[in-house]
Write a structure and sequence with these properties.
4-stranded mixed beta sheet; alpha+beta; Phosphoribosyl-aminoimidazole Synthetase, Chain A, domain 2; 7-stranded mixed beta sheet; homodimer; 10 helices; 343 residues; 60s Ribosomal Protein L30, Chain: A
Chain lengths: 343, 343
C-alpha cells in the first residue's frame, strides 16, 4: 500500500494545512481572520478572554496501538475546551500545532483532523491557526483554546467558602477503567496474539477514547443565573482537584464516599481488574467532569439537576481534606493524580 | 555530576511550573490572571486580539549540540512575537508548552526558561500559561503568542496595491549564513575533533541563535501614523514571503538585486562557503525581519529611516515575480524557502 500514500512533502507545509483545514467553516463573527496570515485576528471586545493550552505526546498521553486517530483528534480538542468551561467561559477558537514523524501519512493526518473538526462542530469553536512540522519521534499535538466570559462571571479555583456545597457532574473513574481495559487487551494481543474482546466495555472505553466536555453545565449555570464560588475540571482525579480548590481557597473539605458518583460499568470493570472503584474515582483522572462549589443557598438548583451530584462541603480547616467512608470512618484524602511528568 | 541533578519527578508538574516561572512578574494590567488556574484570563476590551503559534522540535528546528538552551528559549519566544508584529500588533501574552525527555534535568529547563524570561522582559510580554510534560524523544517547544491592535490598524498579507513600494527591515541572509557555520563547525568537531573557531562569525551566529523581532518598526509606524498595505515576517526567506504577499494580494512584484540588504559578514561567510550571498538573502530564512508594502505617498517616511530598505515595487501582473539583477537581466523569483516539513 506504500505507493498509495500521498506524499506530504509534495504538498508542502502551506498546502498541507490548507488541505487539512479546507472543510472548516468559520462559526463566529468575532473570528475576523482565521488561518492564512501571520496570526489570526479575533474580536473579544465586551468580554474577558480565557486561554489555555495542552500538549499531548505519543507514548505519554496516548498509545496509537489502540487509539483511533479520529478519537485522538476529538479528545485533544475536548481536553482544552474542558479547561475553558472550568472558568465558566464559552470556548470560541482553537489553534492546533502538530509534529508528525515520517511514519505518518496524509490519510492519518486526515483522520486526526476529522476528529478535530468534529469536536469544533460539536462545541461550536473555530480553528484559527496552528503549525505543522515534522518530528524525529512520535506524534505531538499542542492545542490552545480561547474562550470568552463576562467580566463578573469568571470562576476561579480560589473562591470556595466555608459550608459551600462541593458538587461534581456525571460520574468518575470511567476513563481510568477504560484505559486499564485497553492496556490489558493490548498486552494480551502483543504477548499472546489474543484478539481484544471489547464488548461489555463500551461505556468506559468511550469515556477514555472520546470524552466530552461539560458545555451543558455552563449552559445550566447561565439559565439559572448560578455563579459557582470555585470550579476546576477533573483531569487528574477528584482528590487532586479538590485539593487544588481547597489550597487556593485557603479551606478544607469533607467528601462522602457514598455520594461519589461511579457508573455501574466502571464498578464492574474495577472489580474485574481487582481495583477499588473508589480509587478509580479519586485518582483515575481524565474524567473531564467539572468539580465546583456553590453557596448553600443554591442547594435546590444543584440538587434538582439529574447530572449534578453533591459530594461534600467546604470546611474552615485549611489543609484538612477528609473523606468519610460508608462505614463512618474518616480518612485523609491523598492526591495521587495521574501525572505524565512522572510516568 | 549525576547526583547533583535535581529530580523533576520530585517537584511534580505543578511544582515544576511554579519553580520555573517564579521570577516572572505580570507586566500588563490586562493580564487579569496568569498561571495557576484552568486557564489564564485576559482583558482585550477595546482592541482586536491576534494569536499565533509555533512548534519547535529538536532535530528539526534546532540542534542542541550547538544551541545554548538560553538562546533557544529566547528565540522560541521571538519567532512568535515576530508574527504578532507582522500583523502590526503589540504582543502582550504568551503561553509556553514544553515536552522534555528523560535526559533533561531541571538545570537545563532553568536555562531554557531564563531565555524565555529574558525575551518576555525585553519585549514586555507576560507568560500566562502552558503545559509541561515528558516526551519519549527530544525537546519540543510549543509557544502561542497573543497581541492587541486597534481594529483599523490590522495589517494583513493581502492588501498590496499596484505601484506600492516593497520594503524590508535590517538585512537578510545572516541567520542562514550563521547556521551554515554552526553546521560546518559541528561536523568538523564530530568527525575530526577540531575545536570550533567561531571568532569573526559573531554577527551571523547571533542572528541565527538569538534573533530579535522588529518591535522598533511597529513603534515607528505608530509614531509616523503610517499604515502598511501588507506585511509579513521573513521566516522562510524573502522569495517565499514576497510571493505570499503577491499571491494573497492578487498582484506581482519587481525586486532589485542591488537593493536587497545583505550584511558584509553575511557576504564574507557566503563567499567562504561558496554560496551566492543573494541566495542566502532570497531563500535563507529565519531572518525575522519584516517585509511590507506602502503606498508611494509614504516614500519619504520609509526612505528616511536608516533600517528600512526599499527593494522593489508591486506590479499589476498576478503570478509574475521578477528579480532585476545588477546586470539588468530579469529573472523569475522562485520560492525555495526553508521548509521543516520537507526536511
Amino acid at each position: 500500500m506504500e505507493e498509495m500514500k500521498k506524499d506530504i512533502g509534495d504538498l508542502g507545509e502551506f498546502g498541507l494545512i490548507s488541505h487539512l483545514t479546507k472543510d472548516l467553516k468559520i462559526k463566529h463573527s468575532t473570528t475576523i481572520k482565521g488561518i492564512g496570515d501571520d496570526a489570526a485576528v479575533l474580536d473579544y471586545q465586551g468580554s474577558e478572554l480565557v486561554i489555555t493550552t495542552d500538549l499531548l505526546a505519543e507514548g505519554v498521553h496516548f498509545n496509537l496501538i489502540y487509539t483511533p486517530l479520529r478519537h485522538l483528534g476529538y479528545k485533544s480538542v475536548v481536553v482544552n475546551l474542558s479547561d475553558v468551561y472550568a472558568m465558566n467561559a464559552i470556548p470560541k477558537q482553537i489553534t492546533v500545532s502538530i509534529a508528525i514523524s515520517k511514519k505518518h501519512d496524509i490519510a492519518m493526518l486526515e483522520e486526526l483532523y476529522a476528529g478535530i473538526k468534529l469536536a469544533c462542530d460539536r462545541y461550536g469553536v473555530d480553528l484559527v491557526g496552528g503549525d505543522t512540522t515534522s518530528s524525529f519521534s512520535g506524534l505531538i499535538i499542542s492545542i490552545t483554546a480561547l474562550g470568552s466570559v463576562a467580566k463578573d462571571k469568571v470562576v476561579y479555583r480560589n473562591g470556595a467558602n466555608e459550608t459551600d456545597l462541593i458538587c461534581v457532574t456525571g460520574n468518575l473513574g470511567a476513563a481510568y477503567a477504560g484505559l486499564q481495559i485497553l492496556e490489558r487487551e493490548s498486552t494480551l494481543f502483543e504477548k499472546e496474539g489474543v484478539q481484544p474482546i471489547l464488548k461489555d466495555y463500551e461505556y468506559v472505553l468511550e469515556r477514555q477514547l472520546k470524552p466530552e466536555a461539560r458545555k451543558d453545565l455552563i449552559d445550566y449555570f447561565e439559565e439559572k443565573n448560578l455563579l459557582p464560588t470555585s470550579m476546576i475540571d477533573i483531569s487528574d482525579g477528584l482528590s487532586s482537584e479538590i485539593m487544588h480548590i481547597c489550597r487556593q481557597s485557603g479551606k478544607g473539605c469533607e467528601l462522602y464516599e457514598d455520594k461519589i458518583p461511579v457508573d455501574e460499568q466502571t464498578s464492574k470493570v474495577a472489580e474485574e481488574l481487582g481495583i477499588n472503584p473508589l480509587t478509580c474515582a479519586l485518582n483515575g483522572g481524565e474524567d473531564y467532569e467539572l468539580l465546583f462549589t456553590v453557596p448553600l443557598s443554591e442547594y435546590k438548583n444543584v440538587n434538582d439537576h439529574p447530572f449534578i451530584h453533591i459530594i461534600g462541603h467546604i470546611t474552615p480547616e485549611k489543609g484538612k481534606h477528609s473523606l468519610i467512608l460508608e462505614s463512618g470512618q474518616e480518612i485523609e484524602l491523598k492526591a495521587q493524580g495521574w501525572n505524565p511528568i512522572l510516568s
